[in-house]
Amino acid sequence: MSEVPSWRTPPTVASGVAVHDWPCASLPSPAWLPASASPAWPPCVGDWQVSKPLTRRVSVTYPTALDGFTINGVAVSAHNAVEMPADGSAVFVAYPGVYQVGIGESKLLSAKTVTVSTADGDGSHELWVEATDELVAALQEQVDAKVDECAKEKGTSPYGCPFRAYTYSTIRNFAWTVSQYPKVTRNVSVQDGTFTTYGGTMKYTYEEKRSSGWTPDNGSSEIGAMPGTFDIDGDTVHVDFDTSGF
């Protein structure tokens, strides 16, 4: 007996089945079919339907401080993901192929573009991102602004500020001034979205009540470490300071 004609087996592509609409009139009658066969040739079998998707899953682990990244130059984020596992990755659906994953152009971050292949199955990669000098400078600006805000306070222990003064008598006209701003450390973690500072000094002046009257006095106080978290939206850096240890 002759083999079943090849048109009855739809062609396959990767892991899926292609859809075809074969024109019935273009199919020649096979030699093995008797002239008296019923039903009449050619039979119309309709469209082939996809029985298994052609798609793969691309999993990318990226820093929490990053608002998104690029796949083949197209900006994507958590909003485009089909799944967000607890491990900090984002899962996307893509056709079999080779994809370039990066962060696009950024003055705040640097990262090498990586290649993820889904030709033979699902693909995954961790996007390692580092801070640029511009990011450190942006964090430093917000540290300075926080210190300046605290310097406006008139109390010896301003709430939510990393410094304080100790006096043991009646005082008035207490005021802070910045002697030296703290510095953002170089080990800024883009992966965790965290940073901290070191150094810094505040000066303060006041008048102390003595038996001879109100007498001017002054002192200085070291600024404690100012840890914080940050996230990046385009070229904008948002910072939250952890004031629990202040």
Summarize this structure as a short list of keywords or feature phrases.
246 residues; mainly beta; 3 domains; Heme utilization or adhesion related exo protein
Description:
It is a single chain. The longest helix has 19 residues, at 133-151. A four-stranded antiparallel beta sheet has the order 5-4-7-9, with no helix packed on it. Strands 6-3-10 form a three-stranded mixed beta sheet, with no helix packed on it. Strands 12-16-17 form a three-stranded antiparallel beta sheet. The protein is mainly β. It is built from one helix and 19 strands. It has three domains: 1-53, no CATH class; 56-131; 133-245. This is Heme utilization or adhesion related exo protein.
Write a concise synopsis of the structure shown.
With 246 residues, the chain is mainly beta. The protein is 8% helix and 35% strand.
Low-confidence stretches: 1-22, 29-33
Distance between the termini: 89 Å
Which percent range fits the helix content? under 10%
Give the mean pLDDT.
84
What is the number of beta strands?
Answer: 19
Radius of gyration: 34 Å
Number of helices: 1
- Number of folding domains? 3
Percent strand equals 35-45%
Order of helix and strand elements from N to C terminus: EEEEEEEEEEEHEEEEEEEE
